[in-house]
């Protein structure tokens, strides 16, 4: 579609998954019930329900809120799409809190994702499909005292934070990185970049790129400055040592890929020609895949362990067929996402300046790596899912679990260059795979919340709570 098909008068996109509302209501019924119950009930739930029951002698009795059956509470919880509403429900009383923790079959669907901005403000979906105003994620005081903190990634209920020195500029590099659980505040510190490590302690290897040109140098205890741009996790850090952390650093125009797992005292830092044209990274079937905007290349990194910890053991250039694209368009801001065991490439095609009004089409392609050359296979439906895309986190979400959910939508929030000012700008839009329409969303999030004082762009991330 061309820019004329965008609906400029629509302020917010459809809610990806919603609870059916009563006529004229702007709050989900279950959400309102939980909030009202919380307001009325104390910790011990002394209040009674208005509906009487009768014993064997036909004397009326009243049940307390705490006596609601766990199965009923499970149904109510499953009808609350927002994580805040589920938290309010658990706070009503001890009985409701305990019931919410019981193993229920089937378990309630996960709540809708949250949008976390780089400065740890976050926003959630309201009943009308709009993202609400921002609230701040509470950070532990000790982490705030160590310097400027910004969000650079997420995984399930975990956020990834990078730290700058106090009052440092964007040239200083980061002094640390840590993982924080959004709900429990648990902190896992990752090793800082080691600019002062003696080179004698470094352990490095150079690997040629299979089916490609050049090589990648991988060094543990590398002496370098890093500015974390995007950090991803292979699994939850709760899963002991199986979690692998991959970080893309872009400092002083020098891109690097860094790897870490629990137990390592330093990062394994990789640099090479294929990393220079970085566009996106994702874990898929035990490997790390990197998409390069230059020539639309895809590289796979096999990761193994030696005495130094994690190390890259093989790098392969995945030879691809030519990506089909509409005439007169160019490609920017493509993302790779795992979806139901498949590796997807999400590609916006632009006809003019890099902004949502000039999107001709967004193609979603399955990357079939089995043949040689590998193929891009376009898909036209997400089978009940939407995909939420941001610079630091992209993931599908099953909206068909909720009544009234609209699927086959791509929720984008990503940076571009503002055409008139040549300055960083953020596009916030939703693309429908069904009819190719593009509409804006997140109108309540102002541009000032997407910039930091020294003008560096901020990188929002979608957070996907599991409960």
TrEMBL record:
Residues 134-431 form the KIB1-4 beta-propeller domain. Gene3D superfamilies: 1.20.1280.50. It holds the Pfam family Beta-prop_KIB1-4. This is KIB1-4 beta-propeller domain-containing protein.
């Amino acid at each position: 579609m061309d820019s004329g098909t965008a609906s400029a008068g629509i302020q917010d996109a459809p809610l990806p998954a919603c609870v059916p509302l009563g006529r004229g209501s702007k709050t989900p019924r279950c959400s309102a019930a939980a909030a009202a119950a919380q307001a009325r009930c104390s910790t011990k739930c002394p209040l009674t329900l208005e509906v009487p029951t009768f014993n064997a002698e036909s004397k009326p009795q009243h049940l307390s809120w705490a006596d609601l059956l766990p199965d009923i509470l499970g149904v109510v919880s499953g009808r609350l799409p927002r994580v805040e509403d589920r938290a309010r429900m658990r706070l009503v009383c001890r009985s409701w809190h305990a019931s919410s923790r019981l193993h229920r079959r089937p378990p309630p669907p996960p709540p809708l994702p949250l949008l976390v901005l780089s400065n740890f403000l976050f926003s959630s979906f309201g009943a009308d499909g709009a993202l609400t105003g921002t609230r701040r994620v509470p950070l532990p005081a000790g982490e705030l005292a160590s310097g400027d903190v910004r969000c650079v990634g997420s995984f399930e209920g975990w956020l990834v934070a990078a730290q700058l020195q106090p009052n440092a500029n964007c040239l200083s590099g980061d002094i640390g990185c840590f993982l924080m659980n959004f709900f429990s505040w648990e902190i896992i510190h990752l090793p800082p970049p080691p600019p002062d490590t003696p080179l004698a302690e470094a352990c490095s290897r150079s690997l040629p790129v299979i089916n490609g040109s050049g090589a990648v140098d991988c060094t543990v205890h590398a002496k370098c400055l890093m500015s974390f741009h995007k950090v991803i996790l292979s699994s939850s850090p709760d899963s002991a040592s199986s979690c692998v952390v991959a970080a893309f650093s872009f400092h002083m125009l020098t891109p690097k890929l860094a790897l870490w797992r629990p137990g390592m005292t330093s990062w394994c830092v990789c640099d090479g020609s294929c990393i220079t044209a970085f566009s996106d990274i994702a874990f898929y079937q035990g490997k790390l895949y990197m998409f390069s905007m230059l020539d639309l290349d895809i590289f796979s990194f096999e990761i193994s362990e030696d005495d130094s910890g994690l190390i890259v053991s093989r790098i392969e250039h995945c030879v691809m067929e030519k990506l089909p694209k509409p005439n007169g368009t160019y490609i920017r801001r493509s993302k790779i996402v795992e979806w139901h065991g498949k590796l997807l490439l999400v590609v916006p095609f632009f006809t003019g300046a890099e902004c949502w009004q000039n999107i001709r089409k967004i193609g979603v392609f399955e990357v079939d790596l089995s043949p040689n050359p590998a193929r891009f296979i376009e898909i036209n439906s997400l089978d009940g899912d939407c995909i939420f895309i941001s610079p630091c986190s992209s993931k599908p979400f099953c909206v068909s679990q909720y009544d009234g959910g609209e699927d086959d939508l791509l929720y984008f929030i990503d940076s571009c260059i503002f055409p008139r000012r040549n300055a960083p700008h953020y596009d916030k839009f939703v693309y429908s795979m069904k009819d190719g329409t593009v509409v804006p969303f997140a109108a309540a999030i102002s541009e000032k919340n997407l910039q930091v004082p020294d003008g560096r762009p901020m990188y929002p991330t979608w957070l996907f709570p599991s409960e």
